[in-house]
Amino acid sequence: MYKGIFYTHLISVNLFLLIYLVKTILLLTNKNEGLAKFTKMVKVPEMIISTLFLLSGIYMLTQLPEIKTMMIIKIIIVFASIPLAIIGFKKGNKILALVSFVLIVGAYGLAEMSKKQKSATAQPATVLNGFELYTTNCVKCHGDDGKLGLMGAPDLSASAMDINAKIEIIKNGKNAMASFGNTLNKAQIKAIADFTETLKK
Ligand code: HEC
Fold first, then answer.
1. pLDDT in tens, 148-168
2. pLDDT of residue 126
3. What residue segments make up the domains of the chain, in order of their start?
4. pTM for this structure?
5. What is the pLDDT, as a whole number, of residue 119?
6. CA angle 145–148–153, rounded 5-degree value
7. How many whole angstroms separate alpha carbon 192 and alpha carbon 131?
8. Coil, helix or strand for 128?
9. Which residues contact 75 (CB under 8 A, 6 or more apart)?
10. Residues in contact with ligand 1 (CB, 6 Å cut-off)
């Protein structure tokens, strides 16, 4: 469920930005007729895309284990740039249209950057207790017993993944799962992976 919505969000955001980019270029190059034609052509698809984009975004927000400042900044920027864009295009104001485009692209840049930043809570490199490490780093999505399933996290008590694959996914992350290769050392990752084996029924 989460995965499907995550991809819906990704695709609708990209389509939305693409339409937006074409409109901005047409406006900036004084192709007013082209802009009017394009706007008319994409009117319905744009409505569908922006609805999907907003709904999937809202759903994803409700699934976040914690809302970070970066996320709030992103949302404020996205919501601020929409009226700017509407006014900009309606009045043919190039500066407003450009500013809103830069803002919205910037918001996604920010979101990507914050993803690449060190994830989760750094642990002292000396802690080698799998249970303790699991509690600080994994419980918010997977739950105490591995079954919580937030953000589409699979049930770890039913996982058929072997230990090496687990070490790999903890180190590098996958889709909505964060990577821990920067915050945890090899021995810690191994300790957590071993601990997740004990969650199996
Ligand atoms: C932000 C939420 C989140 C956090 C925090 C998180 N996970 Fe995950 N985890 C996921 C998601 C989502 C998936 C599914 C990834 C995919 O396949 O797309 C996943 C998949 C896994 C899998 C693969 C299970 C399988 O059978 O496919 C393992 C193992 C796992 N996580 C262990 C951990 C461990 C250990 C930690 C802590 C170090 C952790 N996860 C932290 C969300 C999270």
1. 998 889 999 999 999 999 999
2. 74
3. 2-116, 130-197
4. 0.67
5. 46
6. 110
7. 7
8. coil
9. 61
10. 65, 134, 137-138, 140-142, 151-154, 156, 159, 161, 166, 169-170, 174-178, 180, 192, 196
153 Cα–ligand 1 center, Å = 5
The residue ranges of the chain whose pLDDT is under 50 are: 118-120
**CATH hierarchy code of domain 130-197:** 1.10.760.10
CA of 176 to the centre of ligand 1 (A): 8
* Paired tokens of 91: 């009045």
Single-letter code of the amino acid located at 51: T
Q: Which two tokens stand for residue 173?
A: 């992350």
Q: Quickly count: other Cβ atoms within 10 Å of residue 131's Cβ.
A: 12
| 134-162 residues labelled b (16+ CB within 10 A) or e (exposed) | bebbbebbbbeebebbebbbeebeebeee
56 CB neighbour count, 10 Å cutoff: 20
Q: Are 82 and 8 in contact (CB under 8 A)?
A: no
Distance CA 45, CA 25 (A): 19
Pocket test for ligand 1, best of 133, 142, 172 (most atoms within 8 A of CB): 142
